[in-house]
Amino acid sequence: xxxxxxxxxxxxxxxxxxxxxxxxxxxxxxxxxxxxxxxxxxxxxxxxxxxxxxxxxxxxxxxxxxxxxxxxxxxxxxxxxxxxxxxxxxxxxxxxxxxxxxxxxxxxxxxxxxxxxxxxxxxxxxxxxxxxxxxxxxxxxxxxxxxxxxxxxxxxxxxxxxxxxxxxxxxxxxxxxxxxxxxxxxxxxxxxxxxxxxxxxxxxxxxxxxxxxxxxxxxxxxxxxxxxxxxxxxxxxxxxxxxxxxxxxxxxxxxxxxxxxxxxxxxxxxxxxxxxxxxxxxxxxxxxxxxxxxxxxxxxxxxxxxxxxxxxxxxxxxxxxxxxxxxxxxxxxxxxxxxxxxxxxxxxxxxxxxxxxxxxxxxxxxxxxxxxxxxxxxxxxxxxxxxxxxxxxxxxxxxxxxxxxxxxxxxxxxxxxxxxxxxxxxxxxxxxxxxxxxxxxxxxxxxxxxxxxxxxxxxxxxxxxxxxxxxxxxxxxxxxxxxxxxxxxxxxxxxxxxxxxxxxxxxxxxxxxxxxxxxxxxxxxxxxxxxxxxxxxxxxxxxxxxxxxxxxxxxxxxxxxxxxxxxxxxxxxxxxxxxxxxxxxxxxxxxxxxxxxxxxxxxxxxxxxxxxxxxxxxxxxxxxxxxxxxxxxxxxxxxxxxxxxxxxxxxxxxxxxxxxxxxxxxxxxxxxxxxxxxxxxxxxxxxxxxxxxxxxxxxxxxxxxxxxxxxxxxxxxxxxxxxxxxxxxxxxxxxxxxxxxxxxxxxxxxxxxx
Length: 754
Hints:
Elements: E1 3-8, E2 14-15, E3 32-37, E4 39-41, E5 47-49, E6 53-58, E7 67-74, E8 77-84, E9 87-92, E10 95-96, E11 106-108, E12 120-124, E13 127-132, E14 135-144, E15 147-152, E16 160-161, E17 170-173, E18 179-186, E19 199-202, E20 211-219, E21 222-229, E22 242-244, E23 252-254, E24 263-268, E25 289-292, E26 295-302, E27 307-314, E28 329-334, E29 345-349, E30 352-357, E31 360-363, E32 382-385, E33 394-399, E34 403-407, E35 411-415, E36 428-433, E37 443-445, E38 448-452, E39 459-465, E40 470-475, E41 496-502, E42 508-513, E43 518-524, E44 529-535, E45 540-548, E46 555-565, E47 568-576, E48 589-600, E49 602-604, E50 613-618, E51 621-627, E52 632-634, E53 640-647, E54 651-655, E55 672-684, E56 687-691, E57 694-698, E58 714-720, E59 725-726, E60 731-734, E61 741-751
Parallel strand pairs: 2-3
Antiparallel strand pairs: 1-61, 3-54, 4-5, 5-61, 6-47, 7-8, 8-9, 9-10, 9-11, 12-13, 13-14, 14-15, 16-28, 17-18, 18-21, 19-20, 19-22, 20-21, 23-24, 24-27, 25-26, 25-28, 26-27, 29-30, 30-31, 31-32, 33-34, 34-35, 35-36, 37-38, 38-39, 39-40, 41-42, 42-43, 43-44, 45-46, 46-47, 48-53, 49-52, 50-51, ...
């Protein structure tokens, strides 16, 4: 039987899909793994056991999910925000912010549990803007660690759109078709002289889709109409089911065209303005905006049907009047409202604040982030609609070299002209790719947006490819598609619901799956390194956030975890702790850590793990597992000063089946046997090694080690003898709460018959 020397010196391809088991022709096959569970891929090629998590605090609620958001207002202040049902809590320096002493500082919010993962955040120094399609945009303002305020964003003025007029009146038509029918309003006035030649649209009820043109107005409650699209019946229609399209058809003269902030009358040639003063049941046009002569005027009061009082929000040209023809001026309402929907996402680019909803995005005035007034100069507001044959509902925006926009069906880029920023008269928007996006907020790695694709199972990387001179989307989960695929015939596929990016010490993407599994990708695009692994815990990961570590030399990964403790559902806030009390990293979850100058054998402070079976590392030695009773644990002598107590987790590596071409033939159908297997380790203790035919405990204690003390961490080679005939896949398992780093596998492999 032929024997060959095998070397696996890198796991830089990460965990691969079972669909690639036969692709031995791929160059990365020998660097891939069939299973990487609770291991992280090192950029240098090896794998290391993921750190355990340290318990910080119980979440403010246990009967609904919580969401974590990162916030870094300054280089010296980094926060994790815990968003739960109608509240937000604050964490800093690896601890919860309390005020008053002992009680969690908390801010009340309007967001309920179903809203939490639909929130998009946009930070701006000490302000965190919060977007949600079902809520008016808010901003969370930081004044001190224990002083935060949540306020509505007072867009002044907001981006606006020409919708038409929605009179607050019930109406009835005299006929279902033909010219010369009458449209009668009840309860309040509905029609003005400037409505002649405007179109009436019916958008709800059984007459939805009907259309008519206003031929004349005989009174404030009666209009003569020519029916274009017939009605179904002549029943009374409520006020929410119809509107008069476009703007009033009349000339308008402003009293002043500048400066911004000055009060100016807007005088119409015929009756055009609606308000309580002339028989309307609501404020009518108050709060709306008139875009005229390149400027913006906000109506603050209607004194008569021909005179409206306004405040100049955007400087107009000196022209004194706008004629009645359509397009010379428009009457517009807030783009974001209960009727039109609220802003869903936002970003900053070139000193503008961009917000988006539906198929439109708007940019603020330069340097004035809450002012979206259009005007005649380049720094005035911008409004643009994405027009396409397919639905372009905006899901996310990111500012980089241009304005990247992810929509339901594609990805776009908005830019100005060459070497110029975007302005209202200088905006170019082009479709770049067609993957489509979900509403999970994307992350940015440098200038590259990484986003969850529509459906939640793919992770798109939008980047410019110099070879093709085009933007392209790469699916980062292409080779590991099984990580978002269900493992049973029934049920649903797990989807990605939360993303975070860790820069230091290693570049990693963190993705929370809907079933509580954490996916981690070691990501170095310049090295063509995209390596996935899976993390699990005794519970469910629900959210992830990354902030700079308090020491400032690396990043700290926080998680919200749902656990079952003593038969009750609990939600905990924890972080992956890469600093252990005895070993370099923590190796248990939801950990309690004691680092004392005095030795003990009874430890309290574990009420968050009541009745749970926990692992114990005391002065580097693994003690027998025990249960927490009354928030305490005890163990037999000797006493210890450095103790870590927490929930167990197992780390597993299963390699791909070795491919050994012999005589031009594949070894795929042959039985394999490791005659000798050598594993190269770094700073490791306690593990099992084997194949499908069996596994062995790797010995680490030597006669030179003192009894009663933990052996030193081992670096070097461990040699395992003959392991039996099977498929040749090597299994590495760490069940002890101890470090484990695998750098390479090598040995002699015997190839048997088919």
